[in-house]
Amino acid sequence: MSKSIIQTDLAPSAIGTYSQAVKSGTTVYLSGQIPLVPETMEMVSEDFATQATRVFDNVKAVCEAAGGTINDMVKVNIFLTDLSNFATVNDIMSQYFAQPYPARAAIGVKALPKGAQIEIDGIMELPE
After folding, report:
1. Which pLDDT band holds residue 29 (cuts at 50, 70, 90)?
2. In the chain, what are the helix, strand and coil shares in percent, each to the nearest 5?
3. Neighbours of 124 (CB within 10 A)
4. Which of 3, 5, 42, 76 is most buried, by CB atoms within 10 Å?
5. Across all residues in the chain, what is the average pLDDT?
6. How far is residue 37 from each of residues 56, 71, 104, 128, measured CA to CA in Å?
7. 42-43 and 36-37 as β-strands: parallel, antiparallel, unpaired?
8. CA distance 13 to 53
9. pLDDT digits (tens, 9 = 90+) for 54-108
10. Which uninterrupted H or E stretch holds 65?
11. What is the pLDDT of residue 65?
12. Could you give the CA distance from residue 54 to residue 36 in angstroms, rounded to a whole number?
């Protein structure tokens, strides 16, 4: 099966040796997104809710560039530097996803790139 690279200017450019997403068949593997503003590649804010919203906007943009929607995601991994922000993530996530929700993990980590408080990656299955 062939693979294709997904890239959009509506999400931050890759800042390392990776692609925003890779599509193989109808499955899309999304790399981690942090709360960078695509146009400036700067952190959106120090405010957690603002960072979380920016990350979901970035993920949504990559999903759309791959030919789907954020609701086509089947697995979401959320990395948080402070697990006490979990309720805020739930509130913001509910603004982006409709039921049935994807499978999800929320993982507490010590640090994230560029001092981000949140990072999200996942897997999307495109409709055939």
Report:
1. very high
2. 25, 30, 40
3. 27
4. 76
5. 96
6. 12, 22, 24, 32
7. antiparallel
8. 18
9. 999 999 999 999 999 999 999 999 999 999 999 999 999 999 999 999 999 999 9
10. helix 48-65
11. 98
12. 7
User: Tell me, what amino acid is at 122?
Assistant: G
User: Structure tokens of 40?
Assistant: 């400036």
Residues 98-119, buried b or exposed e (16+ Cβ, 10 A)?
Answer: eeeebebebeeeeebeeebbbb
Amino acid, res. 86: F
Cβ atoms of 60 and 4 within 8 Å: the answer is no
pLDDT score for 8: 97
- CB-based burial label for 23 (10 Å; 0-12, 13-18, 19+): buried
> How many CA atoms, within 13 angstroms, populate the side-chain half-sphere of residue 90?
5
pLDDT of residue 80: 98
How far apart (Å, rounded) are the C-alpha atoms in residues 30 and 89?
19
The whole-angstrom distance between residue 73's C-alpha and the CA centroid of its chain comes to 10
